[in-house]
C-alpha cells in the first residue's frame, strides 16, 4: 500500500516566508562565494580547474546550513561529518573551540571522506557564543603517502601508509599560527609549495565564510537566522518524505561488482560484490548494504561509512527523487537525510574497521551510488539512467630540476541511457562532478604531452536511448617520470535497463618508447616511465535503456554518421539498414519484422 497519507503535516513557519527565502539565498550565496574565492586563490589544477573542493556553513553542532552547489558533492556533502569528528576528537582530548581557531582535519574514521581531502574549519562566535562553523575541504595533490600523489595509492596496507593524518589539529590557535605544524607540512609533503599554498587558500576562504555568516547574523539577528534555518530543514525534509511516500512500499534489491585487483592471484581481492536493498515504508527508506563484500584489510578500496558511503546514498536518492528539473532549487541541508536510514555491516567494504586503508575509495563509492540507482530503477524506471561507466584517476609524478612534481588527472566516465534522452558522453558521473583539466594547462606546466583526447568510436550501447560513450586519452611522457592509477570497470560491463544493451568496459595500455605494449589492469601500482613512453586510456561506456528496435531509424542513422556506432551495429542491434549515408527503408522494415 502506498503510504502517501503518512507524510508528516507541515508545521507553521518560524519566520515569514519572504525573510526565510532571503536568508536562504544569502546562505547559499556565502557558500558559492567561498567556492569562487578558493578556486581563484588555489595553486593546483585539481582545485583551480577540476573544482575538487567543497565549501559549507554549519550550525554549532555540525548541521549543514548550506553548501556550494558548483563544487563536488563528495567534498561539500561530508563537511557535517568533519565537524562532528572534530568536536568528538577535541572533547576526547579535553579541548574546546576558541575564537580565532582554525582547525585542520582529515581523519577518514572521524568523518573525513579520505585522507587527501583535508578540511580547514573556522568557528564562528557571536558575543563569545559559538554559533556555527565555516569549512572548506579540498583534494590535495599529495599528503605524504608511500608513493607520489594522493590517488593511485592502491597498495597501502593500512591508513598509516596512506599519508599524514590530522585529527582536529589547530593550525591557528586563538589567532596565533602554529608554525611548527606548517613546517611539518612543508617537510613531509611532495610538491609542498603547491599543496601548502592550497591549504593557506582554504584557511582564508574559511575565514571569509565566517565573516560573511557573522555579518548575516548581525543583520537579521541570531534567532531569526536560526529560525529560518530550522524552517529550511523542515521544508527539505517534507520534500524528501513526500517523494519517498510516492514510491510503492516494498523492497528493491540490486547487485553489482567492482574489479578489485584483477591481477592478484588471490580471489579474495577480485570481483567484489556490492549489494543494496531498499526498503520503502511510508515516508521513510532504509538502505541495507548486507551482502556487500567483506573489507579488504590490506588494500585501500574500503569505503568510510561516514564521508563516502552515506554521501553516495544520500546524493543518489536526492538526485533521482528530487530532480532539480522538476523541483527547482532545493535547500541542500540535513533535512534531506532525515527520512533515510543506512544499514552497513561492520567489517564490510562499506563500513571498514580501523586501520583498514580507504584512500582509494573513489571508484567503489561511485559504484555503490550506481547500485543504489539500479535498485531504485525498479520503483521509478523513468527517473534513472542505465548503468554508468566509472571514472579513473591517474597520479603523474617525476623530478625536474631537482624538484618533485605531482599532477592529478581525473578521467571521465559516462552515463547510461535515460527514459527520454541518450546517456551523457565523457562526463564525471554521480558523486564526482569534477571538471577536466584543459590540455593547455597540462602541457604548459608539466613534462607531458596530450596526443589524443576524443570520444570512443563505435562504442555506444544499444537502446531506445543509447548509452553515453567514454573518452580516449593518450599521454606522452616528455621526461622520465612515473604514474599510478586508481580505476575500475575493466571486467564488469555497465548494466543495460529494460532491454537495453550492456555498456563497454574500460582499458588501459602502456606503450614503451621502444614499442612494447603492456595491457594494464584498472588499478596500477607505482609504475616508472621513460621519456617517450605513452599511456593510453579508454573510458567505459554506459548501458543502453529500452528496446533498441524502438529507436527512431533516423536517430540510428545520426549515430552512424557521428561515429557512435557503425553500420554493422545498426543492422545487428537496431534492425536499421544503412547504405552509404542513408537508410534503406525496405531492408529496415524486413530486419525489424524479423
SSE order and pairing:
Blueprint: H1 17-41, H2 45-48, E1 53-59, E2 64-67, H3 73-76, H4 79-93, E3 102-105, E4 117-126, E5 129-139, E6 169-173, E7 176-177, H5 179-188, H6 192-220, H7 222-245, E8 250-260, E9 270-281, E10 284-288, H8 305-321, H9 324-327, E11 340-343, H10 362-376, E12 392-400, E13 403-411, H11 439-445, E14 448-455, E15 471-477, E16 481-487, E17 507-511, E18 517-519, E19 523-529, E20 534-538, H12 553-561, H13 567-574, E21 578-579, E22 582-583, H14 585-593
Parallel strand pairs: 10-11
Antiparallel strand pairs: 1-2, 1-5, 3-4, 3-6, 4-5, 6-7, 8-9, 9-10, 12-13, 12-16, 14-15, 15-20, 16-19, 17-18, 17-20, 21-22
From the structure above, extract its key features.
single chain, alpha+beta, 22 strands, 14 helices, disordered N terminus, 594 residues, seven-stranded antiparallel sheet
- Strand content is 15-25%
Question: What is the residue-mean pLDDT, rounded to a whole number?
Answer: 95
Number of helices: 14
Instruction: Please state the overall shape, judged from the principal axes of the Cα atoms.
Output: globular
Derived structural class = alpha+beta
Q: Spatial order of the strands in the main sheet?
A: 2-1-5-4-3-6-7
Main pleated sheet: 7 strands, antiparallel
| Amino-to-carboxy terminus distance | 42 Å
Helix content: 25-40%
Stretches where pLDDT is under 50 for at least 5 consecutive residues are 1-9
Radius of gyration: 24 Å
SS elements, strand count:
22
